[in-house]
Amino acid sequence: MPTLTDHARSLFARPILGWVTVIRPDGSPHNSVVWLDVEGDTVLFNTAIGRAKERYLRENPSVSVSVLDPDHAFSWASVSGTATFTTDDGNEVIHRLAHKYTGADFRELAEDERRVTVRVTPEHLVEQSSH
């Protein structure tokens, strides 16, 4: 399995919106804009249990996560792999991501809202650097 390059790791670590592509049950792609972070060679995002991307990933854990440098249109990275899920850190991670992207806590969670962290270990890495 490939490890993240310094370039890819630096993009995923920045507060840049990324997008996640998952597969719907009918085989068509479903894209979502997400907050991202990186832990070593693992890219992560967070969602609420029951949302489309979470449901689709439970059925088919194949996922692609991409980010584009807003300062350099030809500087980007995309990882594809298999999603793994953790719920024990879901609330902590969404607040950490909120601080990274907005500088503030995430909104108050609804009483029945449960968060899940989705981690993607790269099986494929494609990137381009304009530097």
Automatic annotation (TrEMBL):
Protein name as annotated: PPOX class F420-dependent oxidoreductase
Keyword Oxidoreductase (UniProt): yes
NCBIfam families noted in UniProt: Rv1155_F420 (TIGR03618)
Keywords: Oxidoreductase
InterPro entries: F420-binding_dom_put (IPR019920), F420H2_bilvrd_red/Heme_oxyg (IPR052019), Pyridox_Oxase_N (IPR011576), Split_barrel_FMN-bd (IPR012349)
GO cellular component, as recorded: cytosol
Domain Pyridoxamine 5'-phosphate oxidase N-terminal: 4-125
GO function term, MF aspect, one: oxidoreductase activity, acting on the CH-CH group of donors
Origin organism lineage: Bacteria, Bacillati, Actinomycetota, Actinomycetes, Jiangellales
